[in-house]
Amino acid sequence: MPLSAESIASFAGVLSDRTRVSMCLALLDGQAWTAGELALHAQVARSTASEHISALVAAGVVTEERQGRHRYVRLAGPWIAETIEDIGAVVGRPVPPTSLRRVRAEARLAEARTCYDHLAGFWGVAVFDALVARDLLCVADGPALTPEGRSWFAEFCPEPVYASTSRRRSVRACLDWTERRSHLGGRLGAALLRRALEEGWFVRDTALPRALRVTPKGRRAFAELLGIAV
User: Fold this and answer.
1) What string of pLDDT tens digits covers the 230 residues of the chain?
2) What angle separates helix 18-27 from helix 78-91, to the nearest 10 degrees?
3) By CB neighbour count within 10 A (0-12 exposed, 13-18 middle, 19+ buried), where does 6 fall?
4) DSSP H stretches of helix in the chain
5) Which H or E element spans position 75?
6) What is the DSSP letter of 63?
7) Taking the CA atoms of the chain, what radius of gyration do you get in angstroms?
8) Strand 212-214 relative to strand 202-204: parallel, antiparallel, unpaired?
9) Which of 24, 49, 85, 188 could bond to 39 as cystine, CB 3.0-4.6 Å?
10) Can you spell out the DSSP letters for 170-187?
11) Range 102-109 contact pairs with CB under 8 angstroms and sequence separation of 24 or more
């Protein structure tokens, strides 16, 4: 289907509201949120949140699932998360933080965070750069695995994600909005973060959605696997 000004303007209009964008940013953690949790996060009444969620559902930005009295909402897919992250990288951070709490929160997000289902922030960029430096990833004509990279990921990830028939790209250079450089997205980026969480190399910050904390075990693992010394 060809691009049209109407469809693009309609999609942009959905994301032109601060409350809806706030909800989408929360959902970048890759988890399902209840309507009540999103209302609390966006600091609006539940009835107002419900209206915004309905608009996002209608635009195909989020999907919803009802379980009993609860309405669970999540992003429609990784392509939506990547679009939002790309927009964030373009617009940057126009307003500097004005409180110590906000400064600390942004510092934690800048160090390591989830970009839907893959690793972002300083650590995400460090992994991407290390893969390129070790000739596991080629970026000359767009990111692609080298033969050595295919072997490395086949051993690193027990699931054969690089050979998946999914429509989602196996490798994607995702522009990081804090580092302004690329981190690893796509199916392989998701598989890498999944392995890192399973092994305890990163742990989720329960107080700050999306934030991750690298553990001493994780520092040792990435130093051994990719030569990342921080």
Assistant:
1) 566 788 888 888 888 899 999 999 889 888 889 999 999 999 999 999 999 999 999 989 999 988 888 889 999 888 888 888 778 777 765 556 667 777 888 888 899 999 888 999 999 999 999 999 999 999 988 889 999 999 999 888 866 555 555 667 888 888 888 888 899 998 899 999 999 999 999 999 888 878 999 999 999 999 999 999 87
2) 120
3) exposed
4) 5-14, 18-27, 35-42, 46-58, 78-91, 100-111, 122-133, 147-156, 186-198, 216-226
5) strand 70-75
6) E
7) 18
8) antiparallel
9) 49
10) S-EEEEPTTTSSEEEEHH
11) 105/208, 105/211, 106/178, 108/205, 108/208, 108/211, 108/213, 109/178, 109/208, 109/210, 109/211
Query: What secondary structure does DSSP assign to 128-140, as a single string?
Result: HHHHHHTTSEE-B
Q: Which two tokens stand for residue 6?
A: 């109407």
Residue showing tokens 């522009």: 175
What are the structure tokens assigned to 130, written together?
């290390």
The label of the residue with tokens 């999907």 reads 63
